[in-house]
Every structure is written in C-alpha cells, then in structure tokens.
Amino acid sequence: MCGIGPVEAAVATARAIALEQPTGVLHVGVAGAKGITPGRLVIGTEAVYCDLAAEVPVVQHATPDPTLLATTEAALPYAVALPIGTSAAVDGPCGAHPGIRVEGMEGFAVLRACELTGTPAVEVRAVSNEIGEGDRARWQVARGIDTLAEVLPGLLAALRT
After folding, report:
1. Consecutive sets of 10 residues in the chain, 161 residues long: mean pLDDT of each?
2. Are 60 and 98 in contact (CB under 8 A)?
3. How far is residue 95's CA from residue 160's CA, in Å, rounded to a whole number?
C-alpha cells in the first residue's frame, strides 16, 4: 500500500523495498481513462510523469520490467496495454499529454523507485471513470476494485512462476 499521490507512493515504495527487499513489485489501482470502459484493465507499457515541466532535462518516464510486463500481458490477454500517466491532481495534466489515455496518481513514482533500486515492477490499472468526468457520482471505483479483486489471484500466481 503506497498511499495516494506520487510523493507518498515514492516514499512508501522506497521504504518497503529497503525493509522487505522484494523480488518484484506489482502496482495496482484504479485510473481515469479516455474512451475506455470502466472495469477494463490496462497494463502500463510505461509510466509518464505529467506534472513535471522544466527547462532542463528531467526524468519523466519509467518502464516496467520486460519479463514482468510479458508475463502480465500473457496472464491478462484481454487487457489493454498502454502508457499510463501520473499526476498528483485528479484529472490533472495527463489528459492533455500526447499519447496518454490513462491517468493514475502513483504509477510513475512506484516504477521510478523500483528502477532506481533495481527492483522489477509492473503497473496494472482498472478503469473507474472517464478523464474529465466532473460528476464523481458517475465514477465506478467499486467496479474497478472488483475487477482487480477478480484477476489478482491468477495474476499473482502467474507472476510467481
């Protein structure tokens, strides 16, 4: 459990890696998306940090471990594989970022912490709402969580082999 937002996620992930020394990290959660039905699963092909803009080069991309990514894609063949944007704001700047159709709040932070420590990681999200949907009563967070609960036992078993 990494908390909410990129700062909490980075710190919690780094702490967990230091204390527990896992052989891999599966980061899961719900996300907003453009044109993807709530409940649909998305496997992150990369994590893009949408909040950061600077005049100097900065790290804005983190990639999943290729082996974990391939295993996840094989275990979830009906999932969509796309880049997933990270923003500290709900309906943040990822919606305007070219090529980003899925937006969460922690993925880049978790994958970057894993990259820096040499810990393999992959991100899986269940869509809960349309990016830009201002009426939160229309969000289907429970549906996203239910989807994750259904697939996680099989996905974890596949990742452990």
Report:
1. 86 95 96 93 94 64 95 97 89 73 93 96 95 81 95 96 83
2. no
3. 34
List of E strands, 34-148: 41-49, 61-62, 80-86, 102-104, 121-130
Interior CA angle at 133 toward 126 and 150, to 5°? Answer: 15
Q: Residue 118 corresponds to which amino acid?
A: G
Buried b (16+ CB within 10 A) or exposed e, 94-129: bbebeebbbbbbbbbbbbbbbbeeebbbbbbbbbbb
Look at residue 156 in the predicted model and tell me its pLDDT.
96
Q: Please, is 66 exposed, middle or buried when counting C-beta atoms within 10 Å of its C-beta (0-12, 13-18, 19+)?
A: exposed
**Residues near 101 by beta carbon (within 8 Å), at least 6 away in sequence:** 33, 34, 35, 36, 82, 131
pTM for the complete prediction?
Answer: 0.92
What are the structural domains of the chain? 6-160 (3.40.50.1580)
Q: Return the structure tokens found at 157.
A: 């078993």
* Angle (nearest 5°) at CA 22 between 18 and 26: 115
Under 8 Å between Cβ of 128 and 32: yes
